[in-house]
């Protein structure tokens, strides 16, 4: 009888173990991992690359093994419009976009290219791009074009390289300034008396070398990476504009996320925004020193009184922007000007 009772007890204990395991998660059960691809144009080590790597780090930590972020730098999956079409087709979940790249599709984004509008303080610009009402309106336009704009950031202040000093309006007369093929950017340089000349980015070095153009504008990081300082005599630290970009998601992918997962993604942006401001500043200082160490280019600060003259001459471009974009463009411009006043 005792033996029979012992057998029953053993069976009961074994069954309780199975029941206990059934109510929990087996120790060896694997969490399903999904891959999120991020495409961008800059080479490794650039500002976009730093942003993407920080995004990868923060997202993978937040999702605790459920998400594996894969980065595709240097235009591996396409440049400009090709990258945009890839995103829309679902070939990638995210892309890092230059605002100017969508100017033909969303002309209102050209507000971000107006010279002498943004602050010389990167913290102010970060607040405007992260919290302002202007970018919210731009985000609505991205959504209307089947893209989800999630987070704006500044890839760097714009500066000039040139074959002559750009310290007076007279020196801009007839100056062949390379620009992107954006109507507002072209108008920026017409307003200064220059001859704006659109040239594809990868042809800028040879065009400078062959004297087909006299100068160009870019952040310090791009000037150093592309070695424009080798074929130019002057680098003017003008901070006349910024190079804004945004993290954009495929609309189908984004709509397929749960509300909880969307909030997890959004939760990384405050830290990401603070990080990229500091990282971009440090990278700019490092690259500027490399330019000084490896060339004889003259590096000059744009004098405040000259800056004021250029800024005044650039004001009519805002009217040109409104002519092209209508009442909606005017509303967005007014919001940005208000945001800049609030956060200064």
The top level CATH class name: Alpha Beta
Please state the CA-atom Rg, rounded to the nearest Å: 26 Å
Question: How many domains is the backbone divided into?
Answer: 1
Specify the helix fraction band.
40-55%
The CATH architecture designation is 3-Layer(aba) Sandwich
Looking at CATH, the homologous superfamily is Bacterial extracellular solute-binding protein, family 7
* Helix-strand string: HEHEHEHHEHEHEHEHEHHHEHH
Strand content: 15-25%
Total strands: the figure is 9
Largest sheet data? 7 strands, mixed
Mean pLDDT across the residues is 92
CATH level-3 fold name:
D-Maltodextrin-Binding Protein, domain 2
> Count of DSSP helices?
14
Structural class: alpha/beta
CA distance, first residue to last residue: 88 Å
Poorly predicted ranges: 1-27
The gross shape turns out to be globular
């Amino acid at each position: 009888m005792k033996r029979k009772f012992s057998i029953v007890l053993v069976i009961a204990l074994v069954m309780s173990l199975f029941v206990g395991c059934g109510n929990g998660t087996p120790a060896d059960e694997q969490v399903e991992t999904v891959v999120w691809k991020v495409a961008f144009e800059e080479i490794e080590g650039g500002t976009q690359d730093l942003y993407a790597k920080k995004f990868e780090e923060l997202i993978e930590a937040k999702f605790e093994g459920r998400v594996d972020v894969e980065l595709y730098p240097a235009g591996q999956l396409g440049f400009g419009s090709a990258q945009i079409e890839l995103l829309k087709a679902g070939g990638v979940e995210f892309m890092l976009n230059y605002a100017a790249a969508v100017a033909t599709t969303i002309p209102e984004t050209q507000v971000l290219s107006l010279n002498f509008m943004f602050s010389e303080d990167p913290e102010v610009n970060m607040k405007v791009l992260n919290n302002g009402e202007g970018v919210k309106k731009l985000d609505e336009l991205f959504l209307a074009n089947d893209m989800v704009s999630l987070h704006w950031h500044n890839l760097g202040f714009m500066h000039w390289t040139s074959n002559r000093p750009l310290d007076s309006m007279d020196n801009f007369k007839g100056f062949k300034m390379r620009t992107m093929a954006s109507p507002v950017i072209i108008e920026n340089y017409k307003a200064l008396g220059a001859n704006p000349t659109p040239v594809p980015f990868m042809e800028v070095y040879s065009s400078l070398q062959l004297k087909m153009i006299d100068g160009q504008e870019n952040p310090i990081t791009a000037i150093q990476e592309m070695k424009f300082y080798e074929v130019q005599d002057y680098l003017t630290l003008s901070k006349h504009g910024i190079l804004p970009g945004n993290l954009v998601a495929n609309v189908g992918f984004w709509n397929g996320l749960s509300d909880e997962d969307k909030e997890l993604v959004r939760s990384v942006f405050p830290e990401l925004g603070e990080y990229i401001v500091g990282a971009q500043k440090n990278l700019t200082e490092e690259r500027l020193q490399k330019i000084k160490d490896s060339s004889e280019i003259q590096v000059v600060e744009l004098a405040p009184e000259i800056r004021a003259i250029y800024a005044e001459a650039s004001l009519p471009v805002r009217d040109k922007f409104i002519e092209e974009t209508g009442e909606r463009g005017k509303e967005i411009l007014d919001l940005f000007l208000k945001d800049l006043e609030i956060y200064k």
